[in-house]
Amino acid sequence: MSDEDIVKMTETMLHVEGISLAYEGAATLVAARELHDRGWLKPQEKIVCLNTGAGWKNP
Questions:
Q1: What pLDDT score was predicted for residue 59?
Q2: Long-range contacts of the stretch 48-53 (C-beta < 8 A, 24+)
Q3: pLDDT digits (tens, 9 = 90+) for 4-19
């Protein structure tokens, strides 16, 4: 996963869902997407991604 992927996820979540993610929270979503794309996570599985930071602190 790249820094660019993480920044893009923060922007996407803010514009689509109205959620301001910290970079570490966005990294969990990028990782989940990659695991899904590689077949490690199945569509019927439920997972939890945590965002413990504040997106407004991002530069």
A1: 66
A2: 49/25, 50/25, 51/19, 51/21, 51/22, 51/24, 51/25, 51/26, 52/22, 52/24, 52/25, 53/21, 53/22, 53/23, 53/24, 53/25
A3: 999 999 999 999 999 8
Domain coordinates in residue numbering, the chain = 3-54
The residue among 34, 24, 28, 33 whose CA lies nearest residue 49 is 28
Query: Measured in Å, how far apart are the chain's first and last C-alpha atoms?
Result: 20
pTM of the entire structure? 0.83
